[in-house]
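Write out this protein's structure.
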Amino acid sequence: MSSAKRRIKAKKKRRHINVIFVLFLAAAGIFFFYQQPARRDIQGKYPAVAAPEKTPVPALTPAPPPALPRVSIVMDDLGPNKKAAERVFRIKAPLTLSVLPQEVYTAWIAREGHRLGHEIIGHIPMEAQKPHRLGNGGLYTWMSRDEIIKTLRENLRSIPYIKGVSTHMGSAFTQDERAMQAVLSELKKRRLIFLDSRTTPKSVGFKLAKAQELMALQRDVFLDDKDDPREIEIQWKRLVTIAGKKGYAIAQAHPRKNTLEFLQKILGNSREVQVVPLSALIGP
């Protein structure tokens, strides 16, 4: 091989080596760059590193306050007296108004009471053991089944927005199974609540109603059996005690001065019970 050819070949070999060396340096530079710690910023400080995200701890929800025992206050004997009803309407609580049928102000009291948010039931007059004037729509044990049902239907038609009935007097009538069966069968057809006022411990009303799977309740306390402020307060405390034990209780009362003054005061300040309509005590 001539010397000229050897020089050309050597020159090509050096050029090839140079290219390989340059590529090696470039690769080393890239490797060195990525292996270095985080670069400082222009002030000479390392860039801030984001802290790892923390799982948020849910806020503790405070436990709801314990539910107050429920009390239904049934205001009896409304119907003949408009002024008495207007005094009842001044009490700011969801009372249950028990309205006598076929009286002068029966329909007006039921409509106005309903408009103000009160629940309406019929206070159906029934025969007592001692002779008492029952007034319009009275039911007697001597009546036939058809007569009882006919009179009861007239009573119910006279009371707008009616949700149920309670017994007015009735210490004789509510002991009579035949008579009570006639009443309860009609209430069941109309899906009305039956409240046994328990004017006698011998009443069969509540027992028969439950046997017929009727929506039924019974009174726990007569708030003003004695029209005396001290006695009314005693009966109220008894009512609260009963409600505390079983979760609810029912009081029947009358639109008398002492009773209304007591309820106005106690319902404005009491935190012992929650006043609810009668139907709120009916289970699902």
